[in-house]
Amino acid sequence: MPDKNKGLIVTNCTILFVDIRSSTKLSDKSQAKSMAKIYRAFARAMSMCVYESGGRVRQIAGDRVMGVFVDDAKESSIEKAVNAARGITSVNEYIFNPLCKRNVNHKEICCGVGIDAGRILVTPIGIKHQGDDSRDLVWAGKVANVASKHTDLAEASEIFVTKRFYE
């Protein structure tokens, strides 16, 4: 399997994941149109929190949004991610849920946030085949995996961070 294994190491990177708690149960009790509306609005609202805090959205998969933050001259990636996480929980509680209850059959959405920081390898994967382009970036390494797992551990409206991030 020849591979040049090209990638870009990003240092001082913080990864944040947010996703809807119990979305499978929610889907089982909802019509597809309602869930599509919820997923679109949720991804948009969570993405706006990431962008407003100086991050970039690098992946949206169903009900899960991935934000990436890097240090700059004004603010560390950690501060940006914490601000995004606080924004996410506030937006979900005070803006998203009241609108969702009013406009989507009294549905209430709970979400959890997971965060980790450290070095990560960003590398392209996928292929172009007969006019179809499946290429994307993979954020490989412990930081992305651990942040994603911490999202799964977070309870509703909880921001779950790693010990490494906390220190």
Please name the CATH architecture: 2-Layer Sandwich
Question: How big is the Rg?
Answer: 17 Å
How much helicity do the residues have? 40-55%
Beta-sheet strand percentage? 25-35%
- Biggest β-sheet strands, sense, barrel: 6 strands, mixed
Number of domains: 1
Q: What is the count of β-strands?
A: 8
The helix/strand class is alpha+beta
The low-confidence runs, each spanning 5 or more residues with pLDDT under 50, are none
Q: Mean of the pLDDT scores?
A: 84
Termini Cα gap: 40 Å
CATH level 3 topology: Alpha-Beta Plaits
Task: Give the overall shape.
Answer: globular
Order of SSEs: EHHEEHEEEEHEH
CATH superfamily placement: Nucleotide cyclase, GGDEF domain
- Helix count from the secondary structure assignment: 5
CATH C-level category = Alpha Beta
Domain Guanylate cyclase: 14-151
Protein name: Adenylate/guanylate cyclase domain-containing protein
